[in-house]
Amino acid sequence: MKPSTPVITLLGGAALGVAILVASTLQTPSAAPVNPYAATSSPAGATVTLPASAPSTAIVSLTPSASSAAASTPTASASPTVPTVSSVPTTAPAVSGTVPDDADYGAQVGGGEGAAVAVSVHKKKAVAYVCDGHKVGHWFSGTVKNGKLDLAGQNGAHITLNYRNSKAAGYVMAEGHQYAFSLPTLHGHAGLYESIAMVHGVKMKFGWIVLADGYQVGSVIANPDSADPQVSAAPPLDPATGTAEDNGVVLIATLISGVTGSGF
Amino acid sequence: MTAQSDVSPAPEDASLGIAKLIVPSLIGGLIALTLGIYGRLHHPTGIAVSISGFTSAGYAKSWLATGATIFAIIQVVSALVMYGKIPRVSAPSWIGRAHRWSGRIAFLLAVPVAINCLYGLGFQTYSTRVLIHSILGCAFFGAFTVKMLILPKRGVPGWVLPVVGAVVFLALIGIWFTSAYWFFSTFGIHR
């Protein structure tokens, strides 16, 4: 008997595991790519530029005390002008290009710790969603006007953005935090997914944002129509099948796409 | 993963033999804990390195897990033969090697699945199936480590290896039922 063979087996397995982990890390462009906010202009002096490496402390909160804290945060190197109003800036960053009839956008928000925003525009209608896969999940829907969207959601949530054929940029206010975003267009499996289901007698509205690099984040809102909706993490969505599973219930998700019109 | 002749027939001191289990158990527990904590802290990407030849990561993992489970069943059968527990079947000379290699293959098939799960999905708790799967998945590698580390030790009571082996096997069966079985019965059996 060679005493070391079981240990060699273990080490071999460990080496294989590390190799696959490294390969996974390399193949996934980034486990949590932070989309640097890149507004081309700052129309109302209200632009908050969050560097790619901005930690969560750089999130501009709109409560007075937190505002001063955020203003003194050294990491907000682009000397942000902290909005003093209790909503998002009324003017979203300008975006150049032509206004498309139909488009889908999405990306992670600046400094949002994995939170993402997705927007789909179909003719004159728009659906937007922000979620962090944790406690933020807000849906917005309404009409667009000249490449601009300005919508209120539940519990003080608010989104304002400008969109053109290749990009959308703006702000979203959710759970007392304001996030800036700059969204490229999304195609294929990437996009905004929705599923509404009764799970054990409770109405649940699931929403996922899947980005081009495979990054996904999803939240679920229990009792979405009530005065007190509860938000929690959504189970992972398999974009290949468009399904997820929650407590033994298989969820069929719909891709909300302005380009194809599905979900509108 | 050892031939019958490797099992110490008469441990001179039972408590000393049991004491030899402490360090392997601690290491195994640490590994299970490490996997669980990593799966909980790492932000799941939803994807990991893709395994060619399958339509999705779910199918790749389900088939690999099924392969590991089949080899694990070979493990149990070959162990029973080695221990002379199957009537009228005497252990052939190659049974020890068959047991060792089926174990190695099962382990090596399970590793990519685990990394895919931990990296792409993480340790999740959103349903009973998923919670059981997450716990068993981490526990399996801890238990397997314990088994591997105990194997070369002399003087360990005779019941230890069969018990630890059974724990490893049952964990894998539980993992398979809460993942591949669920996946195949939900999405159908194909590549």
Can you give a write-up of this model?
- With 264 residues, chain A is mainly beta.
- Chain A folds into two domains: 56-184, Beta Barrel (Porin); 191-256, no CATH class.
- Chain A contains two helices and 16 strands.
- A five-stranded antiparallel sheet of chain A has the order 1-9-8-7-6. A five-stranded antiparallel sheet of chain A has the order 13-12-11-10-16, with no helix packed on it.
- With 191 residues, chain B is mostly helical.
- Helices cover 68% and strands 0% of the residues of chain B.
- Chain B has six helices and no strands.
- In chain B, α2 (22-41) packs antiparallel against α5, α3 (57-82) packs antiparallel against α4 (95-120) and α3 (57-82) packs antiparallel against α6.
- The longest helix of chain B has 28 residues, at 160-187.
- Chain B is globular and about 50 Å long.
- Classes of the chains: A mainly beta (264), B mainly alpha (191).
Low-confidence parts of chain A lasting 5 or more residues at pLDDT below 50?
30-85
* Mean pLDDT metric of chain A: 76
Name the helix and strand elements of chain B from N-terminus to C-terminus, one letter apiece.
HHHHHH
Q: What is the molecular shape of chain B?
A: globular
Task: Name the quaternary structure.
Answer: heterodimer
- Give, in order, the helices and strands of chain A: HEHEEEEEEEEEEEEEEE
Any idea what the shape of chain A is? globular
Main β-sheet of chain A: number of strands, strand sense, barrel status? 5 strands, antiparallel
Q: What summary fits the major beta sheet of chain B?
A: none
Please tally the helical runs of chain A, counting DSSP H or I stretches of 4 or more residues: 2
Strands in their spatial order, largest beta sheet of chain A: 1-9-8-7-6
How many individual helices of chain B? 6
Quickly give the structural class of chain A: mainly beta
Total individual domains of chain A: 2
